[in-house]
Amino acid sequence: MKDLKYTTIEESLKQEDSNVNLRGWVYRERKSNKFVFIVLRDESDIIQCVISKAKSPEIFEKAEKLTIESSVKISGDLKEDERAPTGYEVSVSDLQIVQIAEPFPITEHQSPELLYDNRHLWIRSRKLNAILKIRHTVVGAIHEFFRSHGYYKFDAPIFQPNQSEGGATLFEVKYFDDITYLSQTWQLYAEAGIFSLGKIYNMGPTFRAEKSKTSRHLSEFWMAEMEAAWMQLDEVTEVAKDEIRFIVKEVLKHNKKELEILERDIKLLEHYTEAEYPTIKYSEALDILNTKYKMNVPWGKDLRTMEETKIAEHFKVPVVVTHYPTEIMGFYKPPSEENPKEALCFDMLAPERYCEIVGGSERSLLLENMIKRLEADGEDPKNYEWYFELRRYGSVPHSGYGLGVERVIMWLCGLDNIKDAIPFPRTMLRKAP
Q1: Pairing of strands 152-153, 159-160
Q2: Is the pTM of this model over 0.70?
Q3: How many CB atoms lie within 10 A of CB 212?
Q4: Distance set, CA 158 to CA 140, 166, 204 (Å)
Q5: 288 by DSSP, 3-state: which?
Q6: 307, 298 contact by CB (below 8 A)
Q7: Is the peptide bond before 335 cis (omega within 30 degrees of 0)?
Q8: Domains of the chain (ranges plus CATH)?
Q9: From the centroid of its chain, how far is CA 290?
Q10: In whole angstroms, what is the distance from residue 195 CA to residue 200 CA?
């Protein structure tokens, strides 16, 4: 079988030639006195393969040794069979065993923790295979969206000397004879980049030492961020809406099969590509929560997951909420001139209980205000002197946002836990495998 030309299962199902040469792993196996049934999987799909004892006694004898996840090469005739898992079956005429797998530690009805302990093996499952293909599309769509709109990719350091999203969530690391921190965001460096490149974007790993055990938080995740000179709040929110619509369209274009494996509501995703996404102020959101849902949320309080859920479900599409209270926002989010108690910032909330997927703002141009807010947070403004110099040399209005890649994938795939949206999750309680 060395000189054979192998195709993927997906390619084989499309070709006219009924004789196929496949290679992959035993996904499922069932044996009787007369037949061995193998569900073969590769990166593209699964297909049932049948070995008949009457037709091929020697191949049958070899097939009886196969275990789950054994690696094999198979040749045979392909034919339609509606009883088979994917509607086709291969009648095997040749079988080469590459490796007999040891007893596979993952069987049916395993606990989530055991699956996370064996993530290096569980990644082979059809569910995670489908999610990772969708993730591939999402990442590609982000790059395509920004590059097609004139943005330049701009890389920022992972080692950073400053906090930008709260000192309590910093990961401290030894840096030769000193210490530094893992990146919470590229934003401060992006604000330097726009004075050279105008419109920029990036995607990279982000680290937050949040002591959270919820299904929506990771300690290491990927964030897709953008920053643009001259852009104000009403413009940057529209960029975020357009990006989300584009991502959903790309997933529908390339991953319908994977969405079906995940039993995702495709019609609902199609609706998200066509619908208008409303923009409301934080004060309007409180009015909806308190008037319609009797939740009694006081002005000045940040929205919790349950409150974000109600707002998104109220509109049943992604919704942008702007003008959160200045006091609870980051030092770089400027107060509105019309009402200094409101910051020029926004979050985008996804429906179906998925809540915040994008967060951004205009960036403050008020040096004295930023210094006071850093001091109030216990930070030494001297550590931000390089950042403040951006305001001293040709400062202009500018805005940006960060999109949580795993949160978007979680929403698009209809997942219960964000840990399934990344190949190897890192959380407060998990740093391996």
Answers
A1: unpaired
A2: yes
A3: 14
A4: 22, 16, 9
A5: helix
A6: no
A7: no
A8: 9-99 (2.40.50.140), 116-421 (3.30.930.10)
A9: 32
A10: 10
Structure-block tokens of residue 376: 């109030």
Q: Is 216 in contact with 355 (CB distance < 8 Å)?
A: yes
| Helix/strand/coil (H/E/C) assignment for every residue in 11-22 | HHHHCCCCEEEE
Query: For residue 105, how many other CB atoms are within 10 A of its CB?
Result: 11
Q: Quickly tell me which residue has 């930070």 as its tokens.
A: 379
Burial class (CB in 10 A: 0-12, 13-18, 19+), 104: middle
Tokens of 422: 């990344």
Alpha-helical segments (H) within 377-430: 385-388, 405-413
- As a whole number of Å, the CA-based R_g of the chain is 26
Look-up: residue for tokens 């009457």? 54
Angstrom distance (rounded) from CA 201 to CA 257? 30
Handedness of CA 90, 93, 98, 102 (dihedral sign): positive
pLDDT in tens, 296-320: 999 999 999 999 999 999 999 999 9
pLDDT under 70 in the chain at which residues?
A: 1-3, 16, 165-167
- Which residue, 68, 75, 177, is CA-closest to 124? 68
Which residues lie below 8 Å from residue 432, measured CB to CB, with a gap of 6+?
none
Quick one: DSSP state of residue 303? P
Read off φ and ψ for residue 260, nearest 5 degrees: -65, -40
H or E segment and range at residue 133: helix 126-148
